[in-house]
# Entry
Amino acid sequence: MWIPLLLAACSQECPPGSARNAAGLCELFPEDSAAPETDTTDTADTDTDTDTDPTESLSLGDPIEELGGTASSGTPATEEWVDAVVLDEQLGVLAGVGGTVLFDHVKREVVAHYNTNRTYRVDADPDDMVAIVGTIHDGLRRINLSSGDVRRYYDGPSGVGHADVSISGGVVLVAWRSAGAWLMDTEFNTLAVIDATAATAAVIRGDRALYTDEEALILLDVSDPTQPAELARAVLPADGYDLDFDGTRAAVSLGGRGVVVFDVTGDTLTSLGALEVPGTAQGVALDGDYLWIGSWAVTALAWLGDGAPVVVGHEDPRFSAMAVGARDGIALVADWASATVLRRSDGLGGPEIHLKDQITFQRDTDVNLTVDNYGAFPLSFSAEQPGNGFSIAPASLTLEPGASGTITVTPPSGSAPNSQLTWSSDDPDEPSGRIRIMAAEGGAGSAHPDFELVGFTWPDKTLQNFRLADYKGKAVFLSYWADY
Amino acid sequence: MCSLEVPDIQSSIADLYSEDDLQVLFINSKDPYEVAYEFMDSVEVSLPSLLEGEDLYMSYPRKSGGFAPYPLQVVIDRDGITRYVAYQYDAQAVRDVIDEVLSE
# Structure
């Protein structure tokens, strides 16, 4: 398939793997022709300390295509999807506030709905067509995906939600945040309690299982699930959110600390490298030599083929990429209000631009606009001078993979109107965009309202008053939340 | 899943700065004290949890178009000026703004 690329303003030749067509654009070689092994020596080897550039055998292009979703931004949210699993080439399972569903990811339709309250995690065994879900405050459920039968388990330990669940070959591994990791059968008889005071993520596949406690990733031999044996452990810098494992590699997401990938062959845990992604790394899904990551702000795709993992693409979610399931090149994203289906292409990577769509300015004060390249190829960016007396410098940037650049926006002096900035790039799925330049009013750039609210600091139960004015001289980070 | 980021904020933001430089506050809009305490107890996060923040939450400019899950993240500088307002939790972006504020 011919994919035209925008030419970077600074380069004369087409990037490796592509050739100039009659319209003057660089087109990638079609996938079924013998695309030459591209030597991307003009790509700086920035983040890896291996001899070879991990992107050497990738061609330039956008590796992620959105096939569709079940809801679009702008429509009211009726679902809140938070986890997803792909079963096969037709079906997947999604879990959320409103329950669990069997989902046809080809037609992008719900096939069956199971009444499971406030569901937080799901895993499924496609061979047995059984799913296990973990709910907040409401225990575990086993769902027979063929018959629709849902079995509830009441008597778990009284940890409040935040359990992870996994199932393989009739054995269930449950991580209870404050009661450790348990092995159970599908009738919810406990087979073994793994000695841990807290477990945050878990995965079982065949006779091997992994879980995270508050310090480490632990590998277990569960060939006899009544006698799990620890094989290896690796210290982690933060609690694990989610785990995936395919027999040879394991990926663990660490929230704001990114993702770490491990080689699990030979029953040892060897780190292959860490990945940073925009947002907060929540859900991970391995698919052959690729890894999908749902991180709220983006769905990222990483390539594991040459040792050190490298991010090769991002896709903006329709809402928030809470988690991902993947199989055979298809990713099913639990995209909050939408079930979004993505497809990846083999052997393609590209520059990935990341920047805001709005900046606010205060009277007579410059604003810095940061442009990031989250991709695996160099990014070219250029912007037009905004109207209404604003000026920008510089007007263009070239960013190596993983690099950031800054454009300074200067408002006209005195009382300035709003404006906008139009930009273009050689990111194949974001070739252009517009940034609104807004005068600060009530948002970023203006004084935050002083407040005085009653509150407590765990473990202390006493209530006291908290005022914003008490923290003048410090930076303050407010995070609003609600129990759901 | 608005409560999910609470423990992550501890490890990905609060733990990385000195208490002299950064104050992290959780603000809950509508849940009663018992629910908020039970939650903080379950995740063992020892950062202030403020209650009845509904009016304050509604005072921020609304995100135009579309929906987002509940969370709202705000960074305020040493002079009390709002520097960052976001409807999605992005630990890296928050750290970038805090670093910028602390370097001023």
